[in-house]
Structure of ADP/GDP-polyphosphate phosphotransferase:
Amino acid sequence: MAKRKASKEKPQATKSKPQDTTEKLSRKEYEQQLYDLHVELVKLQQWVVATGARVVVVFEGRDGAGKGGTIKALTERVSPRVFRVVALPAPTDREKSQMYIQRYLTQMPAAGEVVIFDRSWYNRAGVERVMGFCKESQVQKFLQQAPMFERTVVDSGIILLKYWLEVSPAEQERRLRSRIDDGRKTWKLSPMDIKSFNRWDDYTRARDEMFEATDTPWAPWFVARSEDKKRVRLNLISHLLQQVPYQPVEQPKVELPKRRVGRYKAANFPFKYIAEPF
């Protein structure tokens, strides 16, 4: 991958405008831009650890919107001990008997952590509502309580960022169809994806009501257009870096010490080497 000299300044957020999907971003340009952003993410990580900051990033969006790929691009060059991805499975019977928000509370960050929710408590306002997994009264209660819960999160000192990845019906269908015959992607196509495929309008209505109830000054929703996977990854990471007040943390200069090799003669052990067909 081509490397670029990292800028000393944070990437600047740009004004919102429709994506030009007619001209795809080249892989070379994408990797150059992503390299610079990864350097900044490492600086953010160092600042989080040094200051004990706590960050929560929520990713929501329709099936096939590109949440997984964006999260991978965000985390591939940082430590999983600092950037922790949370993708909870369906609740157990025990969890169903608890407060709805309870199982998410245990995932909140401690000092020096960034927690990324690959889907979150907003399941109640989206998939649970559309697919009939909860009562409408439960949805309305959630929409009333979510802003208060998030106010508590923010007042505790946690930086809370909420992202919705928006994709068109045509692009979503193209991506879902690509998962059918591609052996690398079949695991991404769940029975729930098939059931919810023809409920686009229901999801749109649920999204709009969710935005209206939970887009608050202390925890606003940020929408990222994801027709182009490469562009949405760059745009979202750049935006995230602008939302966190990190500063470069001076690191000690590292030099490898001199070493001597060969003072010990390795044993003639019958190692079981793996086959090397490549």
